[in-house]
Design brief:
The protein has about 170 residues and is α/β, with parallel strands linked by helices. It is about 25% helix and about 10% strand.
């Protein structure tokens, strides 16, 4: 029987990155994932995100009845696939807002967690104040631009919402 130093359960973004970092330290790591490989083409097409929901790559959870939604129980997509729930998000890589981290408590402010985000990333536009290169998670700024996205952004700008070229850029 094979033995391992560490078992990581869940091969989503976090689990896969943790397993990789542990393996880099020459530990024997077993990474377990309930789902299969990410071979569904809709995972790799931002326009396919809604076709994934309720399919074999989705645990297909619903939340508790929501009072403010008239008792409805909305779908809560959770990934059952290599890549985890990140495979069901339309290929969007978005961190939380800096103010959210700042509110978590000592040791978790945005300036304190930013170095870990940077180490995690392999950003295609190169390293800068907010992004890193060489990490286990490949981040592509413009993987699959879509005309609908461009129209939504243009409409927002037309309404006076400032354009933000990098939602992970600290603002």
């Amino acid at each position: 029987m094979e033995t391992f130093d560490v078992v990581v359960v869940g091969a989503g973004s976090a689990g896969a990155a943790v397993a990789r970092r542990l393996a880099d330290d020459e530990l024997r790591v077993l990474l377990l994932e309930a789902g299969g490989p990410d071979v569904n083409p809709d995972i790799h097409d931002p326009g396919g995100v809604f076709r994934l929901w309720g399919g074999p790559e989705d645990y297909d959870y619903v939340v508790a009845p929501q009072r403010r939604l008239g008792g409805r129980r909305p779908h809560w997509p959770r990934g059952k696939v290599l890549g985890g729930s990140s495979s069901l998000n339309g290929m969007i890589f978005v961190r939380g807002a800096p103010a959210d981290y700042d509110a978590w408590g000592p040791g978790w402010s945005y300036p304190e967690v930013l170095p870990y985000f940077r180490r995690l990333e392999d950003f295609d536009r190169g390293a800068d104040e907010h992004h890193g290169v060489g990490g286990p998670v490949r981040v592509l700024a413009d993987y699959a631009p879509h005309q609908v996205n461009a129209a939504i952004v243009a409409a927002a700008v037309e309404q006076g919402i400032p354009f933000n070229a990098d939602c992970n850029g600290g603002r």
